[in-house]
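Contributing new records

If you add data, match the layout below exactly. Sequence lines come first and carry their own label; structure lines follow with theirs. Keep one chain per record. Anything else will be rejected by the validation script.
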Amino acid sequence: MLKQLKRFILSSMAIILLYVIGVIVTVEYLSHTEAGKVPVKTGVLLHAVDQRIVTSGMKVPKIFTGSGESRFDRKNINIPIPDGAEIPVRIYQPKADGPHPIILYYHGGAFLEGYGNIQTHDNIVRALASKTNSVVISVGYRLAPTYPFPTATEDSYEALVWAKKHADLFDGDSSKLAVVGDSAGGNLATVVTMMARDRNGPKITAQALLYPLTTFQDVSFPSRQTYDSGYYFISRSVMEKARENYTPDEKMWSNPYTSPLDANLSNLPPAFIITAEFDPLRDEGEAYGKRLADYDIPVTVTRYNGVMHGFVSLYEVMHRGKQALNETSTYLNTAFWEQPTYQPYSFTINEEQSTMEKLQDRGEAYAIGAFLIGKQAFSLMTSW
């Protein structure tokens, strides 16, 4: 009996050891991607999304998100648009007395139905509200192919006009307005600043653009060619689909309100731009920063190495995403509450990670890898 128990314990330990080795080998293997080696945690998350093991609708475990009582009220309303339609907006309003700065947030998603909406980017909006103690309005602009250009830009601008006019409804300070957006939403955010300039509209304090799309024209950027397979969260096929449906007329590709990279960028608000190393949109985002500087617009550009397109949305499980979100919030807080002395142009590459963060990332990568392997094994067993 004792021998059998001993044999069972040894067998169990051997199985566990083999499983642990298997997880480590798998995770290290996943860090080698088609375009080169990436950090282990980035590799695991890329694989999980590519294999649809993790989807945008899944909730992040509470061990990553934390808990506590909300300091904000959230409400969903529809606002009128001059063409007679209404669009949805989600408003996060601080419970504390204001007035508070106002941030208009424009979500990413290739301008296309089914790729992004208010809900898919709610975690960023919620975090921005908390970190800036601002009213944050997430704008549900209308999408292609049902609504091609210029509907999204007009909706986005009208949301800004509405926010300034009705600031008293949510205890907002209409003298402190900022626009923020990611990917396609980054395009809309900076286009809104141009529209406000051209139409003598609301004065915008600052703009923050997260890995923005800045041109629809055929420009040979190295990052577009290296990271366009779709494995890095955005593909050439999706970009082509966006252009085909959002800007169906080739003349639209050079419109300043679709391709701000080639536009007149004078008299725009100071800008903060984040790009990602493994992102087809990296080079055009950084080129846009240089173009702004050419027009004497103060601009700060930070490239985050080791991460992919959309990484800020994963801030709850990626340190770099949290760092980028914190940097964005700090920039906005400074713009709202201080009289910053802006540098004409600043470009930095963020590669900083403490030893503890590196170890934590590796440990979490192994934990996620173990979960993914277990989930795949369970799926195989139940399919037999």
